[in-house]
Amino acid sequence: MVFPFETLEDLSIRFSSEHELFRKSVREFVEKKIEPIAVEIDEKDEIPRDLLEDMAKHGFFGIGIPETYGGQGEDHINMVILVEEISKASPAVSVILGTNELFAIPIILFGSEEQRKKYLPLIARGEKFGAFAVTEPCCGSDVAGIQTRAEKKGDRWIINGRKAFISNADLADYILVLARTSPPPDKRSRHMGLTFFIVEKGTPGFRLDQKYDKMGLRGSHIYELALEEVVVPDENRVGAEDLGFLIAMETFDRTRIGIAAQAVGIAQTLFERTFRYVHQRYAFGYPIAFFQSVQFDLVEILAKILASRYMAYLAAKLADEGRREFTFVASLAKFFASEAAEEIASRAINLHGGIGVIKEAGIERFLRDVKIIQIYEGTNDIQRLVAYRQLIRILREKNIVSEEIARLVV
User: Fold this and answer.
1) What pTM was computed for the model?
2) Is 377 a residue of the active site?
């Protein structure tokens, strides 16, 4: 056993020629369409609509959506490739892929066939966009503590509450809203009694309130949402009643793989830019790469990038194989890659010196971006907790730890 896996085969990752062709095509698109305007996106805090239209023409919004519903297929490795390459230029643009994924995955896994046929093709074609509304002013990591309520009246639900920090809510046509539909049976079961609903933009009582002016990922906006007597039909309920917490966790298990990919893309582009710079910049008669401390920085940066990339792709590979182990690997990848990227961003700024803190150079913005990546879709400390609990559950299923131990420590 290669604990907590069983064989070395479990740790292998095999890429196809199609994966590499896809990577090259995305790289070409990014170089032509995103890199030239990346600094402008950050400065203006706006992603041009025509860029999104170009992305749609290339089928990028269909990655992760089954072909049956107009997508390119459910391949997590392709999603990691796509997010990493786009994040090398503009992590903010990749957030749109992420919020679409947050909307689509619950529909794919738990939605009705009618919901899949109605919403997924439009998302896949880039004609409509989705968002995911769980966080509230009272509750971030404590998903079970949300206060938004949904009351059933006949074949309709009446939703009241507020959501906060909702990414791309202004762009989204459809928003998945988590609400409490019944009280929990006891304090230990606070996660019970939550349900997801699809709220379409324009529904009476639903509105965007405050737009937050955040430090990073500029171009992708976050909003506070208000829901006042919002009426949705029961056909807009996603999954069974009171299983919303389970749906949210199953969704985050998958989408945090993309968050790790964002961090890998940030780290990779900073390494490439810094590597070029230290071999061109002279000090005391030598390229600064001549100095041993700079060389140490470069190789340590590269080691952390390789480790981060491996974990991100391993999580994607395990998810594609339907292996439950992907859940704790995804959490490991998310916190490790984002923390490595923060350190790499800081070192890259130091190695660039004064140029590193000038906005026009496009280096410092990645440090601002990665701080948010460490927080959203489960803070890094939450990821550590989640990873441990997921690992124990999987080992319990394999009879490696006892039921008693699992109950005590989880």
Assistant:
1) 0.95
2) yes
